[in-house]
Write a structure and sequence with these properties.
It contains 17 helices and 14 strands. It has helices at about 1-15, 15-40, 55-65, 90-95, 120-140, 185-195, 220-255, 310-315, 315-320, 390-405, 435-445, 445-475, 475-480, 485, 490-500, 505-515, 520-534; strands at about 45-50, 75, 80-85, 145-155, 170-175, 205-210, 215, 260-270, 270-300, 325-350, 355-365, 365-375, 380-385, 415-420. The protein has a four-stranded mixed sheet with strand order 4-5-6-7. The protein is α+β, with helices and mostly antiparallel strands and about 525 residues long. It is about 45% helix and about 25% strand.
Length: about 525
C-alpha cells in the first residue's frame, strides 16, 4: 500500500497544472454528489395525511401526532399535514377511531362530557350546535363540496298549535374549484336538512353557494325553473332519440359519415285535467219502492121508538132488527217508487309533453365516380361527384318516415336532400400524456425509485464522467512512472503470465535477432553447446 501511495504521488506530480486542478475538482464533485444522493435517499419521504383542514381540526390532529410521537410537516398555511409515507394509513385509522378530523364544527360529542347543573337553555343550545355540526360533516362528504356551514332556527314550543312557528335553516356551501351541484344534488341536500330537523319543511330551507347564488329557497322561482329545465331536457332527449334512430339506420345503409340528420320537435307542455259526467236516460234502475194499503169498515144502529129516556134505556130498544142498521167504511192505497238514472263519470289527466309536430332534415352524400386522366406515369386519378337519384331519395324518405312514426295529419314535415360532403383529411391526434398516472406511479413506488436513482447516478457518473477524465489525466503518467510493472502481483497473476509466455517472448525474440545478425557465430555457439552436452 505504501508503494502504491508513493506511485500515486509521483503520478500526481507528473501531471500538468491544468490536469491537477481538473482531477481535484472531479474528486470533490464526485464525493459531494455521492454524499448528496446518499443523504437524499436516507431521508424519509412525506406524503399528505389530510388536506384543507380547518384550524380546529388541524390543532387536534397535531396534538394527537405529538402524543404518538409521529413526525409531521405542515403545508398550505397549516391546512395540510404531512407524515412519513409508510405511516399514512396506520395514522389515518388511529385518528378515525377517535373521530378526527371532525370536518368542521362540533358534533354530538359535545354531550360526552355532561356537567352537573346544566340548564335546559344550555342543553338546547348544545343540541342545536351538535345538529348543525353533524349535518355539516355529512354534507362535506359530497365530492363537489369543499366545506359547508349550517344555521338552524328552532323556535320555542307553544301550547297552541296555531301559534307554533315553523323551523327554518340556511346552508352555505363552498364548492371545489371547477365543480358544481346538479339539481338532484341540491334537492338531496335540502331534503337531508329537512328530514334531520323537527318541523322543518323543505320550502323553509335556503341553500346558497360561496358566490352568493341562490340554489334553493325561492319556491315559486325554483318550481318555474325546475319545470322549464325539465321540459327542455325532455325535448332534447326526445329529439336525440329520434335523431339517433335515423342516423344509425342510414349509417348501416349508406356508410359512416355519409349522412347528417337533424330533428326538431314541438311539444305541448300544458297540464290539463278533464272531468266528464254523463246521465244515461235509457238506463233506469229502481232504487227504492214503498207500498201502503189501509182499509176500514163499521155498523151503526138506527134511531127507533118514542123519543125519550125510556126508549133509549130499555133493553128492547138496544136490540136492532134486520133492515134497521147503517154501514160505514173506506179503502186507501199509497205507492212510492224511486228510480236511479244511470250516470258515467270519467276523470282524465292529459299527458304533459304531447307531441304536436316534428320536422326532420336529412342530408346524404352522393356517390363518386373514379376518373383516370392520362396514361402511365402522367396518369391522374380524380373523383367526380354524382348526386343521388330521385328514386333513391324517395326510398330514404320512406325509411325515415317509418323510423320516426311520421304522421301527416299532425303536421310533420321531412326533407331529404343529396349534397356533396367535403371531408378534410383526418389528423390523427396524439394521445395526451398520462402525467397523472405517471405521478401516481412515482408516489406509489417513491422509495424504490430513490434507491434506483442513486445507483443509476453512481454508475453513470463513473462511466460517463469519472472514467473518461481519469483516462485523459493519466494517459502518459502511467508510462513515465512504470507503475504497472512495479505494483505487487498475486501468484495467480504471475502463473497466468508465465503460462501465456509473456516472459519468454523477449528472450526468443533476442535469440532470433542474434542468429539473423551473425549466422557464423551462432553456428559455432550451437556446436559448442552440443559438444558440452555430449
Amino acid at each position: 500500500m505504501k508503494q502504491i501511495l508513493i506511485q500515486l504521488g509521483r503520478i500526481f506530480k507528473g501531471l500538468s497544472p491544468a490536469k491537477r486542478l481538473t482531477l481535484v475538482v472531479l474528486l470533490v464533485a464526485a464525493i459531494a454528489g455521492i454524499i448528496t444522493m446518499l443523504s437524499w435517499s436516507a431521508t424519509e419521504q412525506y406524503a399528505p395525511l389530510f388536506t384543507k383542514l380547518t384550524t380546529a381540526d388541524a390543532g387536534e390532529i397535531l396534538a394527537k401526532l405529538r402524543e404518538q410521537k409521529i413526525p409531521y410537516k405542515l403545508g398550505d398555511n397549516g391546512s395540510t399535514i404531512k407524515v412519513p409515507q409508510d405511516k399514512i394509513y396506520e395514522t389515518r385509522l388511529k385518528l378515525a377511531s377517535e373521530g378526527l378530523p371532525r370536518g368542521g364544527g362540533i358534533g354530538f360529542e359535545v354531550f360526552d362530557e355532561t356537567k352537573l347543573g346544566m340548564t335546559e337553555f344550555v342543553q338546547n343550545i348544545n343540541y342545536q350546535r351538535a345538529l348543525q355540526g353533524e349535518l355539516s360533516r355529512t354534507i362535506n362528504g359530497l365530492e363537489e363540496v369543499e366545506s359547508s356551514r349550517i344555521h338552524i332556527v328552532i323556535p320555542k314550543r307553544s301550547l297552541f298549535v296555531e301559534d307554533q312557528q315553523p323551523a327554518t335553516a340556511s346552508v352555505i356551501l363552498k364548492l371545489r374549484s371547477g365543480r358544481w351541484l346538479s339539481k338532484e344534488q341540491v334537492n338531496g341536500i335540502v331534503h337531508l336538512v329537512s328530514a334531520s330537523v323537527p318541523n322543518l319543511k323543505t320550502e323553509n330551507v335556503t341553500l346558497v353557494d360561496n358566490k352568493g347564488h341562490l340554489l334553493a329557497g325561492d319556491e315559486d322561482t325554483d318550481n318555474l325553473r325546475r319545470y322549464t329545465s325539465e321540459q327542455l331536457d325532455f325535448q332534447e332527449r326526445r329529439e336525440k332519440n329520434l335523431q339517433k334512430r335515423v342516423s344509425t339506420m342510414l349509417e348501416k345503409a349508406l356508410g359512416k359519415g355519409k349522412s347528417v340528420v337533424r330533428v326538431a320537435c314541438e311539444f305541448d307542455f300544458i297540464k290539463q285535467e278533464e272531468t266528464e259526467e254523463k246521465y244515461l236516460a235509457d238506463n233506469q234502475v229502481v232504487r227504492s219502492e214503498q207500498l201502503s194499503s189501509e182499509q176500514s169498515s163499521s155498523v151503526k144502529p138506527l134511531a127507533m121508538g118514542v123519543p125519550g129516556l125510556a126508549s133509549n134505556v130499555t133493553a128492547d130498544t138496544r136490540k136492532n132488527k134486520a133492515g134497521q142498521q147503517q154501514s160505514n167504511g173506506y179503502n186507501k192505497q199509497d205507492q212510492t217508487r224511486n228510480y236511479e238514472i244511470g250516470k258515467l263519470v270519467s276523470h282524465r289527466v292529459l299527458p304533459v309533453g304531447k307531441l304536436k309536430k316534428m320536422s326532420v332534415s336529412v342530408v346524404v352524400d352522393g356517390t363518386y365516380k373514379k376518373i383516370v386522366e392520362g396514361e402511365g406515369e402522367n396518369a391522374v386519378t380524380k373523383f367526380e361527384y354524382v348526386p343521388r337519384s330521385e328514386a333513391e331519395l324517395k326510398k330514404i324518405e320512406d325509411l325515415v318516415k317509418n323510423a320516426i312514426n311520421f304522421d301527416s295529419r299532425r303536421g310533420d314535415r321531412i326533407k331529404v336532400s343529396s349534397m356533396a360532403f367535403y371531408n378534410e383529411p383526418a389528423v390523427e391526434q396524439q394521445p395526451k400524456a398520462g402525467w397523472k398516472m405517471l405521478l401516481s406511479t412515482l408516489i406509489t413506488y417513491g422509495s424504490l425509485i430513490k434507491y434506483l436513482a442513486v445507483a443509476a447516478f453512481i454508475i453513470l457518473s463513473f462511466i460517463l464522467v469519472i472514467k473518461p477524465l481519469i483516462g485523459w489525466l493519466t494517459a502518459n503518467a502511467w508510462e513515465e512512472a512504470e507503475l504497472l510493472e512495479q505494483l505487487p502481483k498475486t501468484i495467480a497473476e504471475l502463473e497466468n503470465e508465465y503460462a501465456q509466455g509473456e516472459y519468454q517472448l523477449p528472450a526468443v525474440a533476442k535469440a532470433a535477432e542474434f542468429i539473423s545478425s551473425d549466422q557464423q557465430q551462432a553456428l559455432t555457439l550451437m556446436q559448442k553447446w552440443m559438444s558440452d552436452q555430449q
